[in-house]
Amino acid sequence: MESLQIQQNHQTHQADQAPQIPKNPLIYIDGLSKSYGNALVLDNVNLAIADKKIIGLLGPNGAGKTTLIKILASLLNQYHGKVLIDGQRPGIASKKITAYLPDVGFLDDDWDALKTIDFYEDFYQDFQRQKALALLEKFQIPLQNRFKTLSKGTKEKLQLILTLSRAAKLYLFDEPIAGVDPLARQEIFDLILQNRALESSVIISTHLVADVEKYLDLCIFIKNGKIIRFGNVAEVKEGFNNLEEAFKEIFR
Predict the structure, then answer these.
(1) Is the pLDDT of residue 70 over 80?
(2) pTM given for the model
(3) C-alpha to C-alpha distance for 121 and 191, rounded to whole angstroms
């Protein structure tokens, strides 16, 4: 009898942890865990996110942000739990509607902007060549200079423009403002929000909470691989002056 009661309590606890599912969620995650060897990087993550949202994935370095982003981008496929993007498991179908910007440079130093645009146009059916060219002209990025001759900031803008020139349904940005000055951070966020596809959703992974707050609809606080707070920004920062204060208190 005691064993039965323990089992029932465990089942009830698991049900309580299940995410509340919005109608037709763009992202649905249930019981997601991911380990590297003996290190548990994501620990029973549950999320259900409606579409047309700007979401901040917020946490310190090493919290599990990049691993979660890579799973959503279908770059990591070995994990436990259920992950759906627009009703599809991460894979070929989800990649067609997901644009991903990693936290490291990916441009070949011997290529130039035109060659990269040609590659993206061949590789992604939703890539908008004229949009990319217009943004490169706007930000005065040369078309035929090898990447090895460009500044770090110019390369970052170019990579951002390539990502935003896809007509994606979901954009994933992993630490897009790390290592840039405050003025450049605002420029990057403005570039993202003004040039993403209409009706799309954006997930921005960062530890710089103050810089991203005003752009967000929803925020996810992640620590040691666990989601410790998730909700509307206004709700999460209720009782605090700003989201950064709430972040510091919750992570204390």
Answers:
(1) yes
(2) 0.88
(3) 21
